[in-house]
Design goal:
This protein is α+β, with helices and mostly antiparallel strands. It has a single domain, classed as Gcn5-related N-acetyltransferase (GNAT) (Aminopeptidase). It is built from 5 helices and 7 strands, in the order E-H-H-H-E-E-E-H-E-H-E-E. Strands 1-2-3-4-5-7-6 form a 7-stranded mixed beta sheet, sandwiched between helices. Helix 1 packs across helix 3. The longest helix has 14 residues. The structure holds coenzyme A. Coenzyme A (COA) binds next to strand 4, helix 4 and helix 5.
């Protein structure tokens, strides 16, 4: 990123197949998805699913990072994936994408959920810094011998939300 600041980036909705393909290539080459066995095709299916919302952090026409959000289903407000391109890491881009998602979710629902792999130590520290609480362990969930840790950030009970 050179000396470019985070506030010179912009967040926009994913709008083309080419952008989805770029994101799928990034995931295909990155942990945790290598260990989890999620290849390019599965990532592309996730990124192009019209039921999901994909937001990109753009540096001009370059994708610096992205987040995939689900606003349907049992865990409404579920962050399916977040990724920051290696040269942009450690500069607040991931925290900024999560803040964007939290603002979007908390307008409609009181919880943000996500799963992090037990071996993804850096991401676990990242979510802890952002105030996420571990609420469960899904053993052997994606691959045998690994767990997914279910995390949650909440602004209150469902029954009190919006009342
Ligand atoms: C996890 C990830 C999204 C973090 O993005 P990022 O832009 O580097 O994170 P930020 O710079 O916004 O960091 C926010 C805070 O988390 C901390 N943090 C981020 N990555 C960390 C790491 N690997 N180890 C320890 N702390 C970390 C930062 O120090 C920062 O804390 P601070 O506010 O006290 O300075 C990025 O490393 C990534 O894309 N990893 C590969 C994909 C992945 O694991 N995704 C998560 C799947 S569940």
């Amino acid at each position: 990123m050179g000396k470019r600041n985070r506030d010179e980036l912009s967040i926009q909705r994913l709008e083309s197949v080419e952008q989805a393909e770029t994101c799928a290539r990034m995931m295909d080459e990155s942990e945790p998805w290598i260990t989890l066995g999620r290849g390019y095709d599965e990532s592309l299916t996730i990124l192009t699913d019209p039921l999901r919302e994909v937001y990109l952090a753009m540096d001009g026409d370059r994708v610096a990072g992205f987040v995939v959000l689900e606003m349907e289903g049992a865990f409404t407000g579920y962050v399916k994936s977040i990724f920051v391109s290696p040269p942009y890491r450690g500069r607040g881009v991931g925290a900024w994408l999560m803040l964007f998602v939290e603002r979007r979710v908390f307008r409609e629902r009181p919880n943000v959920f996500l799963c992090v792999s037990d071996f993804n130590v850096g991401a676990r520290m990242f979510y802890e810094k952002l105030g996420y609480e571990a609420v469960g362990e899904l053993r052997d969930y994606i691959v045998r011998g690994r767990s997914e840790i279910l995390l949650r950030k909440t602004v209150g009970p469902l029954a009190e939300f919006g009342s």
